[in-house]
C-alpha cells in the first residue's frame, strides 16, 4: 500500500499508538527484506514428485449437457478468446495479455512496455518490440528459482505463447517476479491497478476451459477439438508456475488471491479429469507440488487479526479447505482440514448476521463471501469417509499458527431433517443446525436486494469479486455498441465496430443463489437462479455428494421473498430522536399507475442496515445502519438514508457503484461521497471524515431506524453535526420522501417545500449524482446510455 495511506492512517492515531504501529511496520519490512535476501538464491518451489505424484482427490460432478446447453454460445465465444490469451477483466476490454504489450493506459496514465525480464517496479528498460512480445528469460525470476522455472517451462508445448502474469494490462505497469512477496508495493503510482494481475492470476477462466472441453467432446457447435482446451489448460498452468515462483512477485502478495487460485486450479483439473482428460505424470507432479505450496502459504500468511477479519481471511479458509480436501491424507493436511473446517464455522457465524446478510455493509462482498461459504460447505459435506475420519484423528500438537487449533475431535451434528438417528451410518456433519439456516438466509438476502432488472442494489463497495466464475453471464453486442455503451472503453480499438463483443454482467446474484440451492432444492431459489444459474446448482450439489439439507422453513413450499421479515423492524430503537417529524422538504413520486405496488412486500435487514419494499414491478430501498466490519467501514460509502428506486426495470434512483480503488484515489473518494448517492446533503460537506484512507470510514453519522413497516420508514443520522431525518411513505400509487434537519415544524404554517415528479429524469434531477453509473469494477456506463 502507498506511504500516503499509511501516513493518513497514522494521523488518526494517538501519538503512542502511531509510534507502536510504525515500529511494527518497520520491523515487518526489515524482516521481509531479510527473508528476501535469504530466499533469493535458493528455490522456493516445493519438491517435484519425480513423475509419481500422489493421487489428488476428485469431487466434481459429471455435468449433463442439458445443464450447460443455455451457455454453449457464450462459453464457445469467451473460451475462444482465452485460447488467444485475450481477457476482459475489471473494465479492460478484451485485450491480449502478453509480454511487451502496449496498453491503453488508465485516465491518461500509460506506462511503456518493458523487457520480459524487467519491470516498471525495478525501473526496467523498455521492450525492444511490443509486437514481438518475447518469452520471459530465466532472469525474470530470482536466481534460486531459475533452474526449476526453466524445467517447468520446458514442459509447455513448443508453440505456446506465454502470458505476462505480472502486468497491469490496463495501465501497462509491471511488477517484478524477483521481489519477495512482502516487499511488493501498490497504490504508489498513479493509474496503476494491482487488482488487474490479481484478477487474471486467480485463474478463474480455467473452469470455463473445462466446460469448452465438455462441449467439444459433445460435438456442440463453435468449439475446437477437445484436446485444444486440455492442452491450453495444461500450458497456462505451467506458464503460471514458471513465471510465479512461490512467495515471489505480485501474485503471492495477498493470501486471498493465493487461496482463490488454489481452489480454481483444483476444481478445473477435477472437471477436466472427470470428463475424460488425461494429463502426463510430469505435469501432475508439478501441479501437486504447486497445490502444496499454495496450502503452506495460506497457513503461514493469514490475512486478518483477532480484531479485524473479513472476506480476505474467509477466502484463505475456503482455499485451504480445498487444498486439504484434494491432497492425500498426511498429518499436515489433516491439521489443515480440521483447522479450515473449524474456522469456516466460526467465520460464517462472525461474518454473517443471523438474517443472512454479510457484516461488511456491501451487497457485492456479500455475494463473494457467500460463494466462499457455500462451496466450502458443499465440499465438506462431500468428503469421503477417510477424509471425514481426519476430523476425529488429527494431531493438533505440532500446530504453531494463530488462531490455535483445538485438539481432536471436531464435534459432529446430525444433518437437518435426518434427526439424531442411531447407528454409524446416520448422516452427520461438523456444521451445527444454525449454520445451514444462515446459508439459506444468505440466498434470501441476495434475492431481496435484486431489482426487477436483475441487478442488485449496490450498497457499499463493488469489486466484481467472485470465488468461482463458473458460468459468468454475458450479453452479446457489437464492439461498436460496447464502445458507445461503456465509457471505460474509450480508445479501445482491438476490435472493429461490427465484430461481436461479449460483455460480462458482473453484478448478477443468480450464481450464488443457484449454488446455495445445490444444498436445499428450494423452488423459490430455483426460480430466481433460472437456467442461467443451473450450472452453479449442479456443481455445488456434486461437491456435496448429492446431499440435500432440509430447509429451516420446514416441510412444504417456502414462502415468497420478504414474508415474515417486517416484524423484526418493529423492535428498531427509537431513542435517537422523536418518532415523528415534520419534514422541511417533500418529494412526491407519482408512479406510472397504482398497480406498480400490487404484491408489495417489505423486508428489513437491521444488522446490515437496509430496508426494502418489493413488488414484481418495483424495488425501493433505504440504506440506514452500521458501516460494516465491526466499525472499520472498509467497504462502506457515505450513503446513510440514501434511497434507491427501480420501476419496471428502469432505475429512477440508483447507487452508482464503486468504479475503482487504488488507481485513482480521487475517483475512489468521489464514488464514496454522499454526493454520489440519493441521500440527505448539507452543502458540499460529508457526513464523516474521508482522510482515514481508501479502506476506512468514520462512523460519525451513527444512523438508526426509528420506524419501518409495510407503509413507510423513518430514520435519522447525525453526520452533519445535528440530527438529519428522512421519511419514506408508500401508498396509493406514489412514494413520498421527506427530509428535515430536525424535529421542528418544518417551514411553518405553510408546510414543507413540496415537489411532485413523475419521471425518472425529473427525480434524478433532484439528486444530481457527481459520478457516472458503474455496473461493475472498472466499468462506467456512458451518460447517454444509462437505462
Overview of this protein structure:
By secondary structure, this protein is α+β, with helices and mostly antiparallel strands. The protein folds into three domains: 3-39; 65-413 and 457-506, Alpha/alpha barrel (Glycosyltransferase); 575-785, Beta-galactosidase, Chain A, domain 5, CATH 2.70.98. 34% of the residues lie in helices and 10% in strands. It is built from 22 helices and 17 strands. The chain has helices at 3-11, 15-39, 65-68, 72-83, 146-153, 195-201, 205-217, 226-243, 255-274, 281-300, 311-326, 331-351, 363-381, 385-393, 433-448, 479-485, 510-520, 523-529, 534-543, 566-569, 665-672, 760-766, and strands at residues 86-87, 95-96, 413-414, 428-429, 474-478, 500-504, 585-590, 601-605, 610-615, 618-623, 643-647, 650-653, 704-709, 712-717, 724-731, 734-740, 753-757. The strands form five sheets. A six-stranded mixed beta sheet has the order 13-14-15-16-7-17. A five-stranded antiparallel beta sheet has the order 8-9-10-11-12. Strand 14 (712-717) and strand 15 form a beta hairpin. It is globular and about 85 Å long. Mean pLDDT is 90; it is low at 128-133, 560-579 and 742-749.
Amino acid at each position: 500500500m502507498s506511504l500516503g495511506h499509511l501516513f493518513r492512517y497514522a494521523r488518526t492515531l494517538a501519538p503512542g499508538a502511531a509510534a507502536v504501529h510504525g515500529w511494527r511496520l518497520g520491523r515487518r519490512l526489515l524482516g521481509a527484506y531479510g527473508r528476501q535476501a535469504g530466499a533469493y538464491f535458493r528455490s522456493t518451489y516445493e519438491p517435484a514428485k519425480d513423475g509419481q505424484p500422489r493421487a489428488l482427490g476428485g469431487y466434481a460432478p459429471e455435468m449433463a449437457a442439458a445443464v450447460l446447453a443455455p451457455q454453449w454460445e457464450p462459453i464457445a465465444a469467451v473460451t475462444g478468446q482465452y485460447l488467444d490469451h485475450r481477457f476482459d477483466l475489471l473494465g479492460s476490454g478484451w485485450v491480449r495479455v502478453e509480454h511487451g504489450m502496449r496498453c491503453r493506459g488508465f485516465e491518461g496514465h500509460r506506462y511503456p512496455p518493458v523487457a520480459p525480464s524487467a519491470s516498471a517496479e525495478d525501473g526496467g528498460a523498455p521492450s525492444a518490440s511490443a509486437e514481438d512480445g518475447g518469452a520471459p528469460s530465466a532472469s525474470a525470476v530470482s536466481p534460486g528459482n531459475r533452474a526449476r522455472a526453466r524445467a517447468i517451462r520446458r514442459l509447455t508445448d513448443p508453440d505456446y505463447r506465454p502470458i505476462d502474469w505480472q502486468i497491469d494490462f490496463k495501465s501497462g505497469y509491471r511488477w517484478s517476479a524477483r521481489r519477495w512477496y512482502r516487499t511488493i508495493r501498490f497504490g504508489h503510482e498513479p493509474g496503476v491497478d494491482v487488482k488487474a494481475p490479481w484478477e487474471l492470476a486467480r485463474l478463474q477462466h480455467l473452469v470455463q476451459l473445462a466446460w469448452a472441453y465438455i462441449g467439444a467432446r459433445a460435438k456442440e457447435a463453435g468449439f475446437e477439438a477437445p484436446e485444444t482446451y486440455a492442452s491450453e489448460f495444461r500450458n497456462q498452468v505451467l506458464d503460471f508456475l514458471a513465471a510465479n515462483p512461490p512467495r515471489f512477485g505480485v501474485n503471492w502478495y495477498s493470501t486471498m488471491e493465493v487461496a482463490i487460485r488454489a481452489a480454481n486450479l483444483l476444481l478445473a483439473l477435477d472437471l477436466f479429469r472427470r470428463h475424460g482428460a488425461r494429463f502426463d505424470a510430469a505435469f501432475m507432479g508439478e501441479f501437486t507440488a504447486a497445490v502444496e505450496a499454495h496450502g503452506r502459504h495460506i497457513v503461514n500468511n493469514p490475512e486478518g487479526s483477532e480484531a479485524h477479519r473479513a472476506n480476505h481471511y474467509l477466502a484463505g479458509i475456503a482455499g485451504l479447505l480445498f487444498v486439504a480436501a484434494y491432497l492425500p491424507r498426511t498429518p499436515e493436511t489433516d491439521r489443515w482440514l480440521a483447522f479450515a473446517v473449524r474456522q469456516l464455522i466460526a467465520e460464517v457465524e462472525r461474518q454473517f448476521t443471523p438474517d443472512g446478510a454479510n457484516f461488511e455493509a456491501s451487497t457485492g462482498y456479500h455475494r463473494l463471501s457467500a460463494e466462499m461459504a457455500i462451496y466450502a460447505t458443499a465440499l465438506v459435506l462431500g468428503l469421503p469417509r477417510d477424509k471425514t475420519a481426519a476430523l476425529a484423528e488429527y494431531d493438533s500438537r505440532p500446530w504453531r499458527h494463530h488462531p490455535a487449533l483445538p485438539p481432536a475431535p471436531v464435534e459432529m451434528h446430525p444433518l437437518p431433517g435426518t434427526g439424531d438417528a442411531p447407528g454409524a451410518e446416520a448422516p452427520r456433519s461438523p456444521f451445527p443446525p444454525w449454520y445451514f439456516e444462515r446459508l439459506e438466509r444468505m440466498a434470501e438476502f441476495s434475492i431481496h436486494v435484486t431489482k426487477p432488472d436483475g441487478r442488485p442494489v449496490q450498497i457499499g463497495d463493488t469489486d466484481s469479486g467472485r470465488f468461482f466464475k463458473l458460468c459468468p453471464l454475458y450479453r452479446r453486442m457489437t464492439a461498436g455498441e460496447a464502445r458507445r455503451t461503456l465509457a471505460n472503453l474509450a480508445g479501445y480499438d482491438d476490435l472493429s465496430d461490427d465484430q461481436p463483443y461479449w460483455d460480462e454482467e458482473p453484478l448478477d446474484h443468480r450464481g450464488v443463489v443457484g449454488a446455495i440451492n445445490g444444498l436445499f432444492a428450494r423452488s423459490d431459489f430455483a426460480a430466481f437462479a433460472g437456467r442461467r444459474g443451473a450450472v452453479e446448482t449442479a456443481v455445488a450439489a456434486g461437491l456435496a455428494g448429492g446431499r440435500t439439507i432440509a430447509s429451516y422453513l420446514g416441510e412444504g413450499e417456502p414462502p415468497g421473498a420478504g414474508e415474515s421479515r417486517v416484524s423484526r423492524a418493529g423492535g428498531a430503537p427509537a431513542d435517537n430522536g422523536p418518532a415523528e417529524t415534520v419534514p422541511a422538504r417533500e418529494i412526491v413520486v407519482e408512479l406510472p399507475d397504482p398497480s406498480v405496488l400490487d404484491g408489495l412486500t417489505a423486508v428489513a435487514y437491521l444488522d446490515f442496515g437496509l430496508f426494502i419494499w418489493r413488488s414484481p414491478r418495483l424495488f425501493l430501498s433505504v440504506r440506514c445502519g452500521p458501516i460494516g466490519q465491526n466499525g472499520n467501514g472498509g467497504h462502506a460509502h457515505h450513503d446513510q438514508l440514501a434511497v434507491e428506486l427501480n420501476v419496471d426495470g428502469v432505475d429512477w434512483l440508483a447507487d452508482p457503484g464503486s468504479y475503482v480503488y487504488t488507481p485513482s484515489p480521487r475517483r475512489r473518494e468521489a464514488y464514496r461521497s454522499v454526493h454520489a448517492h440519493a441521500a440527505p446533503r448539507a452543502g458540499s460537506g460529508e457526513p464523516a471524515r474521508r482522510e482515514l484512507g481508501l479502506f476506512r470510514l468514520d462512523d460519525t453519522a451513527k444512523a438508526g431506524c426509528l420506524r419501518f413497516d409495510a407503509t413507510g420508514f423513518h430514520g435519522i443520522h447525525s453526520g452533519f453535526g445535528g440530527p438529519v431525518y428522512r421519511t419514506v411513505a408508500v401508498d396509493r400509487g406514489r412514494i413520498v420522501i421527506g427530509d428535515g434537519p430536525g424535529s421542528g415544524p418544518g417551514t411553518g404554517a405553510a408546510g414543507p417545500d413540496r415537489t411532485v415528479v413523475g419521471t425518472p429524469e425529473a427525480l434524478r434531477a433532484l439528486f444530481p449524482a457527481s459520478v457516472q453509473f458503474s455496473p461493475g469494477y472498472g466499468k462506467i456506463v456512458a451518460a447517454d446510455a444509462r437505462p
